[in-house]
């Protein structure tokens, strides 16, 4: 099974959203089936086979999530992040400001789905294959 140390080593290679597809493949290779990240504090729960899971600690102080999602601005911020124009912490701040409270990455579907703080879907994207 995968460990937080392995996940952290893979994450350390990510400098921007442009690196995400390679990171995704590395996590998938570890046996991670899906994971969910909370924008409020940056913790992530990683799920594997047979109910195995591990949770990372919070990555920053609690952030307020806007009560109403702004999908148009979020997509603009996401594109900039994917192009390497922002780092992870900046992107998380933008998510919070645009009402995105969580994302779930599914390895089997090759998707990342963003949700508002009420668990309504804001956007689902297919993750590019490397």
UniProtKB/TrEMBL annotation:
This is DUF1398 family protein. It comes from Dawidia soli.
